[in-house]
Amino acid sequence: MPLHIIVRLFASHREAAGTGSVEVRLEQGATAADAFARARDVHPELPADTNNVAFAVNREFARPDTQLAEGDEVAVLPPVAGG
Amino acid sequence: MSARILISSAVLDEQSAVNALSHDGAGATVTFVGRVRGDSRGRSVEKLEYDAYPEMAEIVFERIAREIRAKFDIVDIAIHHRVGALAVGEISVVIAVSAAHRPAAFDACRDAIDTLKRIAPIWKKEFAADGATWVEDRP
Fold first, then answer.
1. In terms of pTM, does the model score above 0.90?
2. What residues of chain A, 19 to 58, have a C-beta less than 8 Å from chain B?
3. pLDDT (tens digit per residue) in A38-64
4. Total CB pairs under 8 A between chain A and B
5. What are the distances in angstroms from CA B45 to CA B11, B38, B63?
6. What is the C-alpha separation between B79 and B34, in angstroms, rounded?
7. Using the beta-carbon criterion (under 8 Å), do A81 and B92 form an inter-chain contact?
């Protein structure tokens, strides 16, 4: 059974992809980083270098190697600049 | 009673954040107000645009407030952040803290804004005469 994952994009990523949300299908055992890589397959304008991005799964900060479950929402967070 | 935690595209004012606080036993209120500056790294800024992950930013603000209350001897804390397009001089963020005495109020307010800047899932784009850029370093 493939996993259906929503990848949320923000700021420069949202602009590069032209959308704030991408739905991707992944194999069981896939990680947050895999979800972003799959989103990049759909939107090659997204950066390949993920060294300075952070991940969140279901609105909690998460490591890139966090394993996903069906219906999870993965957010890819560029360096933040609030305040 | 206004909300302690607020992420909104509507205009912010510091009094609303102060009004959201409990002042029960508080002898001090400290407020931090952040405004859009007209210059950034040598460039003249025309306006800013804030993007956010609002559902998560709200959770992060709640967590910051909880941790600040645990760490400092304060009565209450409110965190308000604006999103969307802001002109120079407009308020982007307000942090208000009430406490029995001023040292805890000052310390908590500073810790809260520093933590917010470090972790809140909020981004800003600066529009200058020579183009627009997403800010990806921390001043």
1. yes
2. 52, 56
3. 999 999 999 998 899 999 999 999 999
4. 73
5. 19, 5, 32
6. 12
7. no
